[in-house]
Design brief:
- The chain is built from 4 helices and 7 strands.
- The longest helix has 27 residues.
- It starts with a strand and ends with a strand.
- Helix content is about 35%, strand content about 25%.
- By secondary structure, it is an alpha+beta fold.
- A hairpin with an 8-residue loop joins strand 5 and strand 6.
- The chain folds into 2 domains: about 45 residues, Ribosomal Protein L9, domain 1; about 80 residues, Ribosomal Protein L9, domain 2, CATH 3.10.430.
């Protein structure tokens, strides 16, 4: 079994640590994922001396991404979309509204979202107004207003 190695994180990594942290990870994870993506560097003596600078840079990046997430939250919450679906005689909807449908509907009104960040446990299967949450940042969650209406 491979022994863990130390790496210095350059950016925040979910479930691992914040930028500037020195963490122990499996060699394959470091070699195949963290280092090629620029998320970490090997914990050499020279890189360990840069830990303070990396923490400052990571803090600046975190503040910038938080500000961008709050700005995007305001933009998202100011818009509501309507999605049309075919409905049977008894008012039962054919099919459902998935994350992809929501992403396309918001793109049509000029708001870009990532459907992978939607907190949608299962597709929408009822007509009417629904609020779907999207996680923009670890500290910022926005509410999308999606109205499913009968297709004429």
């Amino acid at each position: 079994m491979a022994t863990p190695i130390k790496v210095v994180l350059q950016k925040d990594v979910d479930n691992l640590g914040a930028g500037g942290d020195v963490v122990r990870v499996r060699p394959g994870h470091a070699r195949n994922f963290l280092i090629p993506r620029g998320l970490a560097v090997p914990a050499t003596p020279a890189n360990l001396l840069r830990v303070g600078d990396l923490k400052k840079a990571a803090l600046v990046d975190a503040q910038k991404s938080l500000a961008e997430a709050k700005e995007q939250q305001q933009k998202i919450e100011s818009v509501a979309v309507k999605i049309e679906r075919a409905v049977g005689d008894e008012g039962k909807m054919y099919g459902s509204v998935t994350g992809r449908d929501i992403e396309l509907a918001f793109a049509a009104v000029g708001v870009t979202i990532d459907r992978k960040r939607l907190l949608l446990p299962e597709p929408l299967k009822t007509l009417g107004l629904s609020e779907v949450q999207i996680k923009l940042h670890p500290e910022v969650t926005a509410k999308l207003r999606v109205e499913v209406v009968k297709k004429v």
